Automatic annotation (TrEMBL):
Gene3D superfamilies: 3.40.50.1910, 3.40.50.2060. This is SCFD1 protein. It comes from Podargus strigoides. GO terms for biological process: protein transport; vesicle-mediated transport. InterPro entries: Sec-1-like_dom1, Sec1-like, Sec1-like_dom2, Sec1-like_sf.
Length: 260
């Protein structure tokens, strides 16, 4: 993405193309654990700025945007196009952008006579935060939205629950698109985990149904859905305490020993 969505050439000795990285808080959370300021500079990033900060026009270098496709963010990107802030624009969305928002950006580009400056538009499917090689989390700026407390509030409405489930499913879907594999899903019945599993299953099936636009086919990902080495996704509700039986036997003696 930082190399304009082209694989970097390892033997290249020339200077990188200098560019500006513009991200929102979500993008910042994703990039921070992965890349240091020095590594960003080695990739040609001269400045990294928040989307909603006061930014001056830098008209002689391209800008790489890495943001969530929210209404607020797309409005600000349209404003940047109208203000002619950069030489060219590489728009990378953390989750898939809807057609209506894409049309809004296109209309703004036409209105600002900046259509040729929008170089690439990509859905990156990176809506998860990688902390280690084998560990990622879904928690982001809206950490109060996706939390144990939020799901188990007594006054939670059906609409709020749907929003939480959709957010979790979107992040998990992004993870498996990045992995290039379709999981075998297992979950406990009658819990929030089952709701997530059903929604994720539906989203995966809908994507596979459209063979031409499937995210799990093509040379880049390998034969994801045809592979027998499919990962197992176990979804467990946090109300089920798995740690305790693993630590000791399920007896009163062990409980007393732990507490006292």
């Amino acid at each position: 993405m930082l190399n304009f969505n082209v694989p970097p050439v390892k033997n290249s000795t020339g200077e990188p193309v200098w560019k500006v990285l513009v991200y929102d808080r979500f993008g910042q959370d994703i990039i921070s654990p992965l890349l240091s300021v020095k590594e960003l500079k080695d990739m040609g990033i001269t400045l990294h700025l928040l989307l909603h900060s006061d930014r001056d026009a830098i008209t002689d270098i391209p800008a790489v945007y890495f943001v969530m496709p929210t209404e607020e963010n797309t409005d600000r990107m349209c404003q940047d196009l109208r203000n002619q802030l950069h030489e060219s624009y590489y728009l990378n969305f953390i989750s898939a952008i809807s057609r209506s928002k894409l049309e809004d950006i296109a209309n703004a580009a036409i209105g600002a006579n900046a259509l040729t400056q929008v170089a690439k538009v990509f859905d990156q499917y990176l809506n998860f935060i990688t902390l280690e090689d084998d560990m990622f989390i879904l928690c982001n700026q809206n950490k109060d939205l996706v939390s144990y407390r939020a799901i188990n509030r007594p006054d939670i409405t059906d609409t709020e629950m749907e929003t939480i489930m959709d957010t979790i499913v979107d992040s998990l879907f992004c993870f498996f698109v990045t992995l290039g594999a379709i999981p075998i899903i297992r979950c406990s019945r009658g819990t929030a985990a089952e709701m997530v599993a059903v929604k994720l299953d539906k989203k995966l099936r809908e994507n596979l149904r459209d063979a031409r636009n499937s995210l799990f086919t093509g040379d880049t990902l390998g034969a994801g859905q045809f592979s027998f080495q499919r990962p197992l996704l176990v979804l467990v509700d946090r109300n089920i305490d798995l740690a305790t039986p693993l630590h000791h036997t399920w007896t009163y003696q062990a409980l007393v020993h732990d507490v006292l």
